[in-house]
Amino acid sequence: MIELSHADELRLSIMFTEPLYAVRIDENRMILHALLERGEINFPLSPNCQTARYLKQVREYLSSHALGSPGGYPVFLQRWARMGQIRGETLAGLLCIGEPEAVVAAAHVPALTLELARRVWWASPTAEIARQLLRRPDFVPADLGHTLAQFLLDALPFEQESKLVVESVALLLQPGLLSDDARAILWRGAQRHAGYLTGFIKGAPDDIPAQASAHPEHAHVIFKINASNLHHNHYARLVARVMSVAGQNFLIELERAIKSVADQDTVILLFEAIAEYFSNGSQTKNSDDATSCLTRCPELAPIIAAIKSLETYNSNSLNDILGRTDAVGSVMRKKLTSLTAPLLTHLHALRAVPIHG
């Protein structure tokens, strides 16, 4: 069995005499960084064998002290990493074993507190961790949320995977995270990049900074909804939503995204956004909501028919087509025409423009 060098064993043993919050290891430079109650320290590792084997031994030493078992983490990782199934008493220890995958596992734990989230970020300041932590609404308004947002904003131009671009943009658009100038930068990106645009559609469907006007009949419809006491009617709420300025912006930009999307990951996320938008509040929908709405406002029949059609679209709608092709770009869009052409017709029905074939 490999033993640690005397210098490293001494340093590590001294390190564990103080409250330890987190550990990260720079494998390229062979430097161990530790976050203690009194602040951050670091020291060079002195391997006495092949580097990979030595790092494994260091992590076993750390795991033995932090988790109580040097061999416990690999089994733990296989069973629970990235699934959030980690006991609270183990969570803090995961951050002290110098294992990046353990930090990822910790970031997914529902019981993660803001203080532990700060330690997670210190232990692994990566885009993956930033996205995971920003999925937690309770972290967004904290100083940590703004730190994570700035990191993602700076990293976004270098992100290669389209689905991660979409997710990053959607997360960044959470209220209170970005300045007006930073949001404007993202919106300029959305004029050129379907991934950015899909991020707006998915992350801020009611706050897209386009220049549409409300539907000409919007004021009349709102009056009828109020007069008919339809405030809690699912379809009345959706009609009011799509006919508003924000709704018309959403419809226009959704059409633009459908016509410009260039890869399968992005089109899947786009269809997820469609499902989220038109099923909004559907858990409170009653089976007779459409009938009730039409009885009191029969002039809404074309709008409600289009909404009911759009409610049927989701990412599963793409399976039959995308399951038979790996096409991208204009070829992919052409193959999707049988699905997107009627979808666009329904979108036009919700806008004050004629339907063109």
What does this protein look like?
- The protein has 357 residues and is mainly alpha-helical.
- 58% of the residues lie in helices and 5% in strands.
- It has a 3-stranded antiparallel beta sheet, sandwiched between helices.
- A hairpin with a 2-residue loop joins strand 2 and strand 3.
- Helix 12 runs antiparallel to helix 13.
- The N and C termini lie far apart (74 Å).
For the structure shown, list the relevant keywords.
three-stranded antiparallel beta sheet, 3 strands, mainly alpha, single chain, 357 residues
Quick recap:
The chain has 20 helices and three strands. With 357 residues, it is mainly alpha-helical.
List the helices and strands and how they pair.
Elements (H helix, E strand, L loop, with lengths): L5 H10 L4 E7 L4 E6 L2 E6 L6 H16 L5 H9 L7 H7 L5 H8 L6 H10 L3 H8 L8 H13 L6 H11 L7 H11 L3 H10 L14 H10 L6 H10 L1 H16 L3 H15 L10 H8 L4 H10 L8 H4 L6 H7 L1 H13 L8
With strands numbered from the N-terminus, the spatial order across the biggest sheet is 1-2-3
Q: Number of helix segments?
A: 20
Question: If you compute it from the alpha carbons, what radius of gyration comes out, rounded to the nearest whole angstrom?
Answer: 26 Å
Which structural category do the helix and sheet elements fall into?
mainly alpha
Name the beta content range.
5-15%
The average pLDDT score comes to: 91
Give start-end ranges of low-pLDDT stretches: none
Number of strands: 3
H and E string: HEEEHHHHHHHHHHHHHHHHHHH
Distance between the termini: 74 Å
Largest sheet: 3 strands, antiparallel
Helix content: 55-70%
Shape: elongated
